[in-house]
């Protein structure tokens, strides 16, 4: 039986936590990649789910690929392994509710690619982040070139990737790669507070908003994006959650959303 490298926990109401648990640095072995992908693929079925945290135990969020494992691979095995990391990142990106990467220690290579697949990134100020692949005579191959350019812009992505830059998260925040850089001793507190803020919203609305943003950007032009947004707005009009929000407003009380 394979060792368990990923835990799925519930730290708060309507919040799920995917915990990377392969200390000390959560290097991405093939088995760990499989477990992260499977966790991401199954957790979205809960209709009341509002937010997912991706966190880690150990001294790093994720130091990237397991280079000890990769050392003995053939070229074909390396290709399959990198494709597997990309599929893991796509599975995380495909979680239908907002996903927050909580970065402590380091997020390097495939570890940063995993964080970039999340919707938001909260990091300890002194955490080290970067895509150093060019210094190893390769390139980011699990989505790094594409997601970083979309998140921070092409010029920023090129500067970080061309120089193989590894820098503190506080610097990455200035470049828009990290959303919040906070003192290390407050990292979990801030991440949970952000998740709680998101979880107060209607879960179906969160899903629709995420689809509207992601699909709207994918269609290219603004007019097509606005049509995507309109369709998602129409999808939530008949929901019970929307009616509950109106009742709660009239009755001056917090709404009780159920994801229906």
In brief:
The chain is of the alpha/beta class and 260 residues long.
How would you summarize the topology of this molecule?
Blueprint: E1 6-12, E2 15-20, H1 30-43, E3 51-56, H2 67-71, H3 75-93, E4 99-103, E5 106-108, H4 110-116, E6 120-124, E7 128-130, H5 144-152, H6 154-162, E8 166-168, H7 169-174, E9 180-182, H8 187-199, H9 203-219, H10 222-236, H11 240-251
Parallel strand pairs: 2-3, 3-4, 4-6, 5-7, 6-9
Antiparallel strand pairs: 1-2, 7-8
Helix pairs in contact: 1-3, 3-4, 4-5, 5-6, 9-10
Give structural notes:
- This protein is of the alpha/beta class.
- It has two domains: 6-199, Alpha-Beta Complex (2-enoyl-CoA Hydratase, Chain A, domain 1), CATH 3.90.226; 203-251, Lyase 2-enoyl-coa Hydratase, Chain  A, domain 2.
- The chain is built from eleven helices and nine strands.
- It has helices at 30-43, 67-71, 75-93, 110-116, 144-152, 154-162, 169-174, 187-199, 203-219, 222-236, 240-251; strands at 6-12, 15-20, 51-56, 99-103, 106-108, 120-124, 128-130, 166-168, 180-182.
């Amino acid at each position: 039986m394979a060792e368990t490298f990923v835990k799925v926990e519930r730290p708060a109401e309507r919040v799920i936590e995917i915990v990377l648990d392969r200390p000390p640095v959560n290097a991405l072995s093939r088995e760990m990649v499989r477990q992260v992908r499977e966790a991401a693929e199954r957790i979205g079925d809960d209709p009341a789910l509002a937010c997912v945290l991706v966190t880690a135990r150990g001294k790093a969020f994720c130091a990237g690929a397991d280079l000890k494992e990769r050392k003995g691979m053939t070229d074909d095995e390396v290709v399959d392994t990198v494709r597997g990391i990309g599929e893991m990142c796509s599975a995380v990106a495909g979680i239908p509710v907002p996903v927050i990467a909580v970065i402590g220690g380091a997020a390097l290579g495939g570890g940063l690619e995993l964080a970039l697949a999340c919707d938001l990134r909260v990091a300890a100020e002194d955490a080290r982040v970067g895509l150093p692949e060019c210094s190893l005579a390769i390139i980011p191959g699990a989505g790094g070139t594409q997601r970083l350019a979309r998140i921070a812009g092409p010029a920023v992505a090129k500067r970080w990737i061309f120089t193989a830059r590894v820098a503190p998260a506080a610097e990455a925040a200035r470049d828009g790669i990290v959303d919040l850089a906070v003192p290390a001793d407050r990292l979990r507190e801030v991440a949970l507070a952000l998740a709680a803020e998101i979880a107060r919203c209607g879960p179906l609305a969160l899903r629709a908003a995420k689809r509207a943003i992601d699909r709207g950007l994918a269609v290219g032009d603004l007019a097509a994006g606005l049509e995507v947004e309109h369709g998602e707005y129409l999808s939530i009009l008949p929901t019970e959650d929307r009616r509950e929000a109106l009742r709660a407003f009239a009755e001056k009380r917090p709404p009780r959303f159920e994801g229906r």
